[in-house]
Amino acid sequence: MDQTLSPAEAAELLARDRAHAWHPYASMTSPPPAYPVVAAQGVRLQLADGRELIDGMASWWAAIHGYNHPVLNAALRAQLDKMAHVMFGGITHPAAAELCELLAGIAPGKLPHVFLSDSGSVAVEVGIKMALQFHLSQGRSTRKRLLSLRGGYHGDTFMAMSVCDPVTGMHHLFSGAFPEQVFAPRPEAGFDAEADDAALAADIAGFEATLQAHAYELAAVILEPVVQGAGGMHFYSPAFLAAVRRLCDAHEVLLIADEIATGFGRTGRLFACEHAGIAPDILCIGKALTGGYMSLAATLASERVSRGICEGEAGVLMHGPTFMGNPLACSVALASIRLLLSQPWQRCVKAMESGLREGLAPAARLPGVREVRVLGGIGVVEMHSPVDMTRIQRRLVDRGVWIRPFGRLVYTMPPFIMQPDDLAALTRGIVDTLETLDEGDN
Predict the structure, then answer these.
(1) What is the mean predicted confidence (pLDDT) over 5-25?
(2) At what angle do helices 94-106 and 327-341 cross, to 10 degrees?
(3) Active-site residues: which are they?
(4) CB neighbourhood size of 94 (10 A)
(5) What is the set of domains in the chain, with CATH numbers?
């Protein structure tokens, strides 16, 4: 994996990047440091200067099989020799048809109809549009709002932003530019809360009161099952999710499950909904769908939802991305899902969970740490105060690990293929870095 650049070449690359490349959630007038990656293999990223980093982010939770995997590489090459792209309007192709069939077969409950799109945010947009159009088709013209949870995050496009937490969801600057939605309190009872837990009862009561007060105007509830991702890496009780399903049914409100971050095994179940034994009416997936190789997402709908839409005035779902059903993306998604299902992935994620618990446990004793929590392939160290991301990232890189902290969260979601020694090195690098946060930089 030796693809090093000379110091002059690396400097030129960084100069071009600083001049023109606008990175996510970054300033162009005062850009943060960017680390030039020139190759990736397995769970390692190679920097231009030859240093290797253990990747604890799986490229924002997507590269579950690691990098440069021979099975996924072969799927892309085989499809490329046939066709790289073809429009999906009025045309189909084997990879798309097979992928939709596979997704319908593994989804929780019965969600037989699959709408392919380009990214997770768009999958959420499509899910919301499905819910709105379903109710309009049924003559329920008042049902135009969504109920979401405080602490949630659903993407960066406009309707997705509207259902993110209006205070902590990174989009408060745009308040007033998109529809005002309804928000229920964030569930506080943890993942392991017992059925008689007082906090769980309070969570359910708070949600029920909000739903009852607005049921006449709600098209759907949208939430991230069990794990709220970018809104705080917060884990909550599956019993709360089961109660949400019951209450949605009682008030004829659809349930949209945003499993873009949690799908494909990240929480220890193939889909996080399975922890509660429930199925949504609409399911949004993305990220790990292609194993991190290409951008692809999907929105799955029940027979009731799809029939309700198509029997309405428009007769069709009013959405159609240009690159919908891209053959390269569909082919590598098929290969990634089949690769995952062919392996003892649950055992791997369980072992990762144990390794994360053991490796991050020492952080709980550090003075700046509020809480350490782990679920499946997710390890979180929550600090009392926001971290200086530029400073902490530099220290992490110096210790040979790559993660992307934000706010008060120092977290990791590694590739599933990470071996115990690399996982131990990753967690040790995190803990060692947190131990030295109060020290000045040399």
Answers:
(1) 94
(2) 40
(3) 25, 153, 258, 287
(4) 13
(5) 7-68+345-435 (3.90.1150.10), 73-341 (3.40.640.10)
Core vs surface per residue 322-357: b (16+ CB within 10 A) or e:
ebbbbbbbbbbbbbbbebbeeeebeebbebbbebbe
DSSP one-letter code for 67: B
Q: pLDDT digit string (tens) for 381-424?
A: 999 999 999 999 999 999 999 999 999 999 999 999 999 999 99
Rounded average pLDDT over 116-127: 98
Reported as a single tens digit per residue, the pLDDT across 173-202 is 888 888 899 999 999 999 999 888 999 999
Q: Single out the residue of 310, 282, 302 nearest to residue 137, CA to CA.
A: 310
Tokens of 391: 């400073």
Residue with tokens 């991305």: 321
C-beta of residue 19 within 8 angstroms of C-beta of residue 364 = no
What secondary structure does DSSP assign to 269-282, as a single string?
SSSGGGGTT---SE
Q: Which two tokens stand for residue 431?
A: 């803990």
Phi-psi region of 219 (alpha: psi -120 to 50; beta: other; left: phi over 0): alpha
Q: Residue type at 358?
A: E
Whether the CB-CB separation of 415 and 55 falls below 8 Å is answered with yes
Cα dist from 131 to 96, 104, 197, whole Å: 24, 19, 33
Side-chain half-sphere exposure of 215, counting CA atoms within 13 A: 14
**CA 435 from chain center: how many Å?**
29
Instruction: Identify each DSSP E strand in 168-324 by its residue range.
Output: 182-184, 218-223, 227-228, 234-235, 254-258, 282-285, 297-301
409, β-bridge pairs: 382, 406
In terms of phi and psi (left: phi > 0; alpha: psi -120 to 50; beta: otherwise), the region of 177 is: alpha
User: What's 323's DSSP letter?
Assistant: T
Which residues pair with residue 258 across a beta bridge? 284
Contact assessment for residue 404 and residue 413, using Cβ atoms and an 8 Å cutoff: no
Question: For residues 427 and 363, what is the distance between their CA atoms, to the nearest angstrom?
Answer: 9
Residues facing residue 371 across a β-bridge: 382
- Contact of 47 with 53, CB cutoff 8 Å: yes
Question: Vertex 157, ends 234 and 258: CA angle to 5°?
Answer: 40
